[in-house]
TrEMBL record:
Name of the protein this chain belongs to: 4-deoxy-L-threo-5-hexosulose-uronate ketol-isomerase
Keywords recorded for this protein, A-Z: Isomerase, Metal-binding, Zinc
Highest taxon in the source lineage: Bacteria
A biological process from GO: D-galacturonate catabolic process
Species: Chishuiella changwenlii
Binding site for Zn(2+): H196, H198, E203, H245
Keyword Ribonucleoprotein on entry: no
Enzyme nomenclature, EC number: 5.3.1.17
């Protein structure tokens, strides 16, 4: 079963007027994992699809939604998957890829059948991003050991973190989709600080590894007109091209970042000084 939503893009001048409820309604994705369902949110921000696959009692097949007007889901798209649960498997046109916790899989345009399932009675949670694609690149699994790893931040500023670049152009070829995972060290709670924007691509964040009863305040909006959304474990948020994307938690956590747009240079960003945020 597929549960799908459609989200429009928003002008920053309009977002300034949103109530808390409206802000959450337009940008927060609170229920990524639905039992025995594939949850998909089609965003008009670079047409990125954000979703989750939760095969609890049966295998789940990725099928095209009405929004795609396609014969099969990846007819004109590429797909990135990161498993944030127990061991699972993804079968792509008959080839089986086992994914452990925090392992990723890139699936290129043109793959016709994608099936998600459990392995050895473990419970996988497959977080997915999909973007339009103009070329077919090979399907490839990427483990944490194969990722490009960057250590950033300082304990002094509560932002010491490990960035795992999993599905990025320095690791494998994609059309425009880029995905990775940032792990906050114990005692650190700030992510993506100093903040930045990048008008050449949008981004989506998915927060997990957050303790029960804890929360993350995700910051968005133009640097001079910021807003915040409180989030809990296994929730995602859309970040427009004009918006910062940063957060602070009441404990450490992990988050997955996914990007789509015309520029694939990870370092291409417009930085904002911390003491200039408003």
């Amino acid at each position: 079963m597929t549960n799908s939503e459609f989200r429009y893009a928003h002008h920053p001048n309009d977002v300034k007027k949103y109530t808390t409820e409206e802000l959450r309604e337009q940008f927060l994705i609170p229920d990524i994992f639905l039992k025995d369902q594939i949850k998909l949110v089609y965003s008009m921000y670079d047409r990125l699809i954000v979703g989750g696959v939760f095969p609890s009692s049966k295998a789940l097949t990725l099928e095209p939604t009405d929004d795609l007007k396609a014969e099969y889901f990846l007819e004109r798209r590429e797909l990135g998957i990161i498993n944030v649960g127990g061991k699972g498997k993804v079968t792509v046109d008959g080839t089986v890829y086992e994914l452990g916790n925090k392992e990723a899989l890139y699936i290129g345009k043109g793959s016709k059948e994608v099936i998600f399932d459990k392995v050895d009675n473990e419970q996988p949670y497959f977080y997915i991003n999909s973007a339009p694609a103009h070329h077919t690149y090979p399907t490839k699994k990427v483990t944490k050991a194969e990722a490009e790893i960057v250590e950033l931040g300082e304990t002094k500023y509560s932002n010491k973190r490990t960035i795992n670049k999993l599905l990025v152009n320095s690791v494998l070829e994609t059309c425009q989709l880029q995905m990775g995972m940032t792990e906050l060290h114990e005692g650190s709670v700030w992510n993506t600080m100093p903040a930045h924007t990048h008008e050449r691509r949008m981004e989506a964040y998915f927060y997990f590894d957050l303790e029960e009863g804890q929360t993350v305040s995700h910051f968005m909006g133009q640097p001079e007109e910021t807003r915040h959304i409180f989030m809990t474990n296994h929730q995602a948020v859309l970040s427009p091209e004009w918006s910062i994307h940063s957060g602070a938690g009441t404990s450490n956590y992990t988050f997955i970042w996914g990007m789509a747009g015309e520029n694939m240079d990870y370092g291409d960003m417009d930085g904002v000084k911390t003491n200039e945020l408003k």
